[in-house]
Structures are given as C-alpha cells and as structure tokens.
Design a protein that fits this description.
The protein has two domains: 187 residues, Rossmann fold; 132 residues, N-(1-d-carboxylethyl)-l-norvaline Dehydrogenase, domain 2, CATH 1.10.1040. The protein has twelve helices and twelve strands. Strands 5-2-1-6-7-8-11-12 form an eight-stranded mixed beta sheet. A four-stranded mixed beta sheet has the order 4-3-10-9, with helices on one face. Strand 11, helix 5 and strand 12 form a beta-alpha-beta unit. Helix 6 runs antiparallel to helix 8, helix 6 crosses helix 12 and helix 8 crosses helix 11. The chain is globular and about 60 Å long. The two termini are 36 Å apart. Bound molecules: NADPH dihydro-nicotinamide-adenine-dinucleotide phosphate and ketopantoate. It comes from Xylaria flabelliformis. Its EC number is 1.1.1.169. It is an enzyme of class 1 (oxidoreductase). Keywords: Membrane, NADP, Oxidoreductase, Transmembrane, Transmembrane helix.
C-alpha cells in the first residue's frame, strides 16, 4: 500500500550515469526506487549495485533487489518520475516501451543524456506530461556489470522542457520536488531557466570531443597535438554547431569555443563515451550529438561542412554497431 508522500521513481538505463543517479536518488527520503536493467540485470539482481566514487566513497547493495525489472510493464504501476539515463539511440522505441509505466497526469520524464532534440519523442508519446531535461558532467564508467567507477567530475543542470498544456505552477512543483531529491542525494546540480542553453553548450563539446576521439581513437590532448590543423578543425566544428544553435534561437556565444578549448586543456586528457561505445562495438549516439544539429543546420540554410562531414562518416561507422545490436536477442 503506497504511503501518501511516497515518491515512485523508475530509473531507466542502468549504466554508468543511471547507476550514479540511482545511488543519489536512493539517499532521498520517501523515494521508492525501481531500476530497469538490461545486460547487467543478473549481476544487479544477485549483488546489488556498487558505486566506487572519488567524491562519495564506496557503496554497495544500495538497491533493493526486489525492484530490479527487465521491462517497464513488469512494475505493474505508474511512476511519479521516470529518469531516462539510457543511451539516446532510439528515443521513440524507448517511449513506446515506457508507456505502461506512464500516467500522463502524474508522471514526469527526466532526461539525463547527452545530445539535443532528446525530448521530442517523449513529448510526442506523452503530450499531456511534464519533461525535465538534464545535462550531466558526471564522469563515470561501468567497469563490470553492476560496478560503476565515478571520478571527481560531478555536475548537473536541470530545467523544464515546458508543456503549454500543463499548468505552469504544477510543472514548477514537479521540477522543485525532483530538485529536492537531488539535494537530499547530496549531488552537485543547478536548476536553470532555459536548459536548452546548457544542452547546446554540451553538444558543442560532445560534437567535437566525442566525434574526434572516436574517429582517431586518440584521447583529447593527443588529438589536439596530432597536427597543426587539429585545433583549427576542432574550433571550426564548434563554431558551426554554435551557428546552428543561434539559428534555433538558443543564445550561445562564439566565445564559448575559447572557453571549451581552455577547459579541455586544463583537464586531464579524456576519451569520450562515444569512443568507449565504438571500442565495445555498441551503437553510438550519433543522431542526438551530430545528426540533429546537422539536420537543423541544413534546414535553416547554414553552411556546416565540418559538422556534415563528421556526421556522415560517423553514421557510416555506426551501421555495423546498430546491425549487431539488432541481431542480439
Ligand atoms: N559516462 C559518462 O561519463 C557520461 C555519459 N553521459 C551520457 O549519459 C547517457 C548514459 O550514458 P552512460 O551511462 O555512460 O552509458 P552506459 O553505456 O554506461 O549505459 C547505458 C545503459 O543504458 C542501457 N541502454 C542503452 N540503450 C538502451 C535502450 N534503448 N533501452 C534501454 N536501455 C538501454 C544500457 O543497457 P545495455 O548494457 O544492455 O546496453 C546501459 O545499461 C548517455 O546519453 C551519455 O552520452 C553524459 C556525461 C558523461
Ligand atoms: C564525460 C564527458 C563529459 C566527456 O566528454 C562526456 O560527456 C562524454 O564522454 O560523453
């Protein structure tokens, strides 16, 4: 029997980021957490989840193994929040799968993924529901099934993907309540007024580092040092994505390029989640990181040769991974 103030949360996509936020949400009072796991289902069911975090310490068995599910329908209930931290490969089919767990009058979908345009399939599938859109800078990897290593990198911005058909106060309440869960979970985050700014800023970063580290199989610093042309090409690509954002009425400034280049040079060198996917021969998030900006750019008549070229080559490379994934049971 549900207690009146119980908050039912489904964590969908229990990889590195999903497991990290499952850990955060498991610390919030009144949250009843259900997790949807795929390849790590058996491991999580048997041993729970282990988080090895440079910020939060080491924790294991943080999830009640009774509520690990393989399909959203298995939960046989609808949720207050569904946190989507799966790879943004095929949003429309995920939205379809989630339908039995959604009650548009109460369920808020929370998207914590890289990319732009990620919300559209969920809005289409659940036109009467609320969406919170999130951009994370958490650095994490699942090192073995059910075991996630988190570095010191930890930040998240969240904001509404506003729904004009839902009362604004209700949408704000839903956002505030989710923010209070993150506060109780003791993670670093900010609520922002126009989350599309942060989504597009991050996609400028991901379009550059994820594509270039994947196509070269180099880390970021080795790529930048690989030839005198590497930095100018990276900058050109970033400027093209900013041009698209601006045409989409998302107010990014070209000064962002200097900030992102400085940021990468002042960090330890990194590889990207896309490079990790390519090494594991898993489908890569090419559409939300490059495809959506490239399509928007073309539609709006912009000259985006660098972005288009990388998009076309990565789409080709992705075909094999998508085919292999489709053949798996
Ligand atoms: N890892 C990082 O440091 C960062 C990642 N991000 C972003 O966070 C999101 C999650 O990435 P991350 O956690 O690294 O990825 P992982 O590969 O670690 O985990 C993805 C999880 O989602 C599951 N999954 C993938 N596709 C689907 C699907 N269609 N339906 C259901 N489950 C699915 C995977 O299951 P299975 O194992 O069965 O494939 C896996 O459990 C991505 O958008 C990524 O770009 C953002 C910032 C940093
Ligand atoms: C971890 C980080 C920030 C590195 O670029 C990322 O977003 C990714 O790899 O996709």
């Amino acid at each position: 029997m549900a207690t009146p103030d119980r908050i039912d949360v489904l964590l969908y996509g229990l990889g590195a980021i999903g497991s990290f936020y499952a850990f955060i949400l498991s610390r919030a009072q009144n949250v009843r957490l259900t997790v949807f796991a795929r390849s790590n289902y058996e491991a999580v069911k048997a041993n729970g989840l282990t988080i090895l975090s440079e910020n939060h310490g080491n924790h294991t068995q943080l999830i009640d193994v009774e509520i690990v599910i393989k399909t959203p329908a298995e939960a046989q209930c609808t949720f207050d929040y569904i946190v989507c931290a799966h790879k943004a490969i095929d949003q429309a089919s995920v939205a379809k799968q989630l339908a039995p767990a959604v009650d548009e009058k109460k369920t808020t979908i929370v998207i914590i993924q890289n990319g732009v345009g990620n919300e559209e399939a969920f809005r289409q599938a659940f036109p009467g529901g609320s969406i919170i859109s999130g951009v994370t800078w958490v650095g994490a990897r699942q090192t073995e099934p059910g075991i996630v290593a988190h570095t010191t990198s930890e930040d998240l911005q969240i904001g509404l993907f506003p729904n004009n058909t839902v009362d604004q106060h209700l949408e704000k309440q839903r956002l505030d309540k989710f923010a209070s869960l993150l506060t109780q979970g003791n993670t670093v985050f900010q609520v922002v007024p126009n989350i599309q700014i942060q989504r597009w800023e991050k996609v400028v970063w991901n379009a550059a580092w994820n594509s270039l580290t994947t196509l070269t199989m180099l880390d970021t610093h080795s790529w930048l040092e690989s030839s005198p042309d590497a930095t100018p090409l990276t900058r050109r690509l970033m400027h093209e994505v900013i041009n698209v954002a601006q045409k989409c009425e998302v107010p990014l400034e070209h000064g962002l390029v200097d900030r992102l280049i400085d940021r990468i040079l002042n960090m330890h060198t990194i590889v990207s989640s896309m490079q990790v996917d390519a090494k594991n021969e898993k489908p890569m998030e090419v559409e939300v990181i490059l495809g959506y900006p490239a399509r928007k750019g073309k539609e709006l008549g912009l000259d985006i040769p660098t972005l288009e070229t990388l998009y076309i080559i990565l789409t080709g490379m992705n075909q094999r991974f998508i085919k292999t994934a489709a053949e798996q049971p």
